[in-house]
């Protein structure tokens, strides 16, 4: 049996897949512990051995930042300070838990850095595929700039004798997607596409199931967990687009910020939290920000998408959805009831979108998800132990 | 193989061509209410992502053929320059290369 330490950032979308993999490993008799921010990790992982890491106090990114400005902020003001804040906690976790393998989230860079400095085998958990994409291929100076951020972190917290890109473990990279969605992309050879890993969420939000109207399409609108306060205009336009089609369509709108004022009528149901996984199998379409997890969960249920990427990996994931034929992209900032409505009409009316979503679903199922990730990690740990002097 | 005719070099003509290229690449983007001017910023005003800029680069390449080295232009941009990139910067670059 082996010991696995999961190092995660304080981001729901990054912790949830790790929770699923950790549960699978635990079920196979392995020892699992966590290094991260205790509150959010405990909430998502349930009863678990959690080693506390500090995180920077102010994690709120200015919501208006988009594109490269968001990228600069992400590295300079989020990922790098997060790595520095977490590194001592990760070290303490290693000393206390003595893991055979560290499973480091790709955005919890402290995991990879501490692992390489202490010489502990580590795998990368890539909960989004954006780092594999060639989105920056035409902008080498941006790549160089990111490279300088990485070099600085390695000098401070890692092993400066190493030269590989530590966003990717040299031994094992778990990608929670498949090529049916990513299309052709340049991935390191140690990458394993395991598909989405879904955690059984402890307490799903309640839902008034009698609200559903079997005679109409039901659409889920969600901008994920990290965009509260940003989506007022977009959510209002989504609601208006649905009202224009209320004879055929009704919508559940996740509205954590309450920007729609708690509307609840037969056409529009707003809720601060929705039981997304429970809802998805009955949805005709999902309108979302193209966050990797919402997209993956929708496609795992064969549900086509209207995607309105906001920033970070979302434009890349949105482009993947469009290329796979499983959805339509609209503009987040400029999307209005007309364009959102037209996109909805298309994904609801043209069966090819659902057929494409179902093709991706089949690839996800074949990839094995959390069980497959656990198997790769087991084999990696066993190989490392065997290789030990 | 088609040969690309040498386009007009003045900035107004380039701006028109660039606007057409934008519409071609991003037909869903509503420009009716937002005129594209030299001061228009790609990201903040047009809601373009870097991935869209790459697509736009390809379209401009088709329109201007070998006259203008777009990959080279975008590759020369530092991060802060990309953040604030305006239509005017691209137009002036194109016009300068055509003269």
Structural domains of chain A: how many: 2
CATH topology of chain B: Non-ribosomal Peptide Synthetase Peptidyl Carrier Protein, Chain A
Radius of gyration of chain A: 21 Å
- The level of helicity of chain B is 40-55%
> What is the total domain count of chain B?
1
Percent helix of chain A, as a range, is 40-55%
Q: What pattern of helices and strands is seen along the backbone of chain A?
A: EHEHEHEHEHEHEEHEEHEHEHEHHH
- The termini of chain B sit apart by 24 Å
Apparent shape of chain A = globular
Task: Describe this structure as you would to a colleague.
Chain B: This is Acyl carrier protein. Chain B: InterPro entries: ACP-like_sf. The complex is a heterodimer of chains A (389) and B (99). With 389 residues, chain A is α/β, with parallel strands linked by helices. The longest helix of chain A is centred in the N-terminal third of the chain and has 31 residues, at 67-97. Helix content of chain A is 44%, strand content 15%. The two termini of chain A are 18 Å apart. In chain A, the strands form 2 sheets. Chain A has a 7-stranded parallel β-sheet with strand order 3-2-1-4-5-6-7, sandwiched between helices. In chain A, strands 10-9-8-11-12-13 form a 6-stranded parallel β-sheet, with helices on both faces. Chain A has helices at residues 12-27, 38-45, 67-97, 109-118, 140-157, 179-182, 232-243, 276-280, 292-300, 314-324, 337-349, 351-367, 369-386; strands at residues 3-7, 31-36, 49-52, 101-105, 122-126, 173-175, 191-193, 217-222, 249-254, 268-271, 285-288, 305-307, 327-329. Chain A has 2 domains: 3-195 and 368-386, Rossmann fold; 209-365, Glycogen Phosphorylase B (Rossmann fold, 3-Layer(aba) Sandwich). By secondary structure, chain B is mainly alpha-helical. Chain B is 54% helix and 0% strand. In chain B, helix 1 (11-25) packs across helix 2 and helix 1 (11-25) crosses helix 5 (87-98). The two termini of chain B are 24 Å apart. Mean pLDDT of chain B is 80; it is low at 1-7. Classes of the chains: A alpha/beta (389), B mainly alpha (99). The A-B interface holds A 66-69, 71-72, 135-142, 145, 309, 311, 315-316, 319, 329-334, 336, 339 and B 28-30, 34, 43-44, 47-54, 57, 71, 74-80, 82-83.
């Amino acid at each position: 049996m082996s010991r696995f330490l999961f190092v995660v950032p304080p981001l729901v979308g990054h912790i949830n897949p790790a929770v699923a993999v950790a549960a699978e490993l635990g079920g196979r008799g392995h020892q699992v512990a966590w290094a991260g921010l205790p509150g959010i990790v405990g909430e998502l992982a349930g009863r678990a051995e959690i080693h506390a890491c500090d995180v920077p106090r102010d994690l709120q990114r200015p919501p208006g930042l988009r594109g490269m400005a968001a990228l600069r902020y992400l590295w300079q003001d989020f990922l790098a300070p997060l790595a520095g804040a977490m590194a001592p906690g990760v070290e303490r976790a290693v000393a206390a838990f003595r893991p055979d393998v560290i499973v480091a989230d790709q955005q919890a860079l402290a995991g990879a850095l501490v692992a390489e400095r202490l010489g502990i085998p580590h795998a990368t958990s890539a909960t989004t595929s954006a780092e594999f994409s060639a989105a920056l291929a035409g902008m080498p100076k941006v790549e160089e700039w990111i490279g300088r951020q990485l070099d600085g972190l390695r000098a401070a917290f890692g092993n400066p004798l190493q030269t590989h890109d530590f966003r990717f473990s040299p031994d094992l990279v778990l990608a929670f997607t498949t090529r049916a969605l990513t299309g052709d992309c340049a991935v390191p050879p140690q990458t394993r596409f395991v598909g989405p890993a879904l955690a059984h969420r402890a307490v799903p939000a309640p839902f008034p199931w009698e609200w559903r109207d079997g005679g109409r399409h039901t659409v889920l609108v969600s901008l994920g967990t990290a965009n509260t306060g940003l989506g007022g205009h977009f959510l209002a336009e989504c609601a208006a687009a649905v009202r224009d089609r209320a004879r055929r369509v009704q919508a559940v709108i996740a509205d954590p910020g309450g920007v729609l004022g708690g509307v609840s009528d037969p056409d529009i149901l707003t809720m601060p939290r929705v039981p997304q996984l429970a809802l998805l199998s009955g949805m005709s379409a999902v309108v979302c920000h193209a966050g990797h997890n919402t997209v993956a969960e929708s496609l795992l249920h064969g549900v086509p998408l209207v995607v309105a990427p906001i920033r970070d990996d979302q434009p890349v994931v949105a482009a993947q959805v469009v290329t796979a034929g499983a959805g339509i992209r609209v503009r987040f900032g400029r999307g209005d009831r007309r364009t959102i409505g037209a996109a909805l009409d298309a994904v609801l009316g043209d069966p090819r979108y659902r057929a494409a979503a179902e093709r991706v679903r089949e690839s996800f199922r074949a990839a094995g998800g959390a069980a497959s990730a656990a198997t790769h990690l087991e084999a990696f740990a066993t190989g490392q132990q065997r290789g030990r002097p | 193989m088609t040969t690309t005719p040498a386009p007009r070099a003045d900035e107004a003509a380039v701006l028109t061509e660039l606007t057409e290229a934008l519409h071609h690449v991003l037909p869903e983007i509503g420009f009716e209410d937002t005129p594209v001017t030299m001061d228009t910023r790609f990201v903040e005003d047009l809601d373009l992502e870097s991935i869209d800029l790459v697509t736009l680069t390809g379209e401009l390449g088709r329109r201007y053929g070998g006259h203008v080295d777009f990959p080279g232009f975008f590759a020369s941009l530092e991060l802060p320059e990309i953040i604030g990139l305006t239509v005017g910067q691209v137009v002036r670059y194109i016009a300068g290369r055509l003269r």
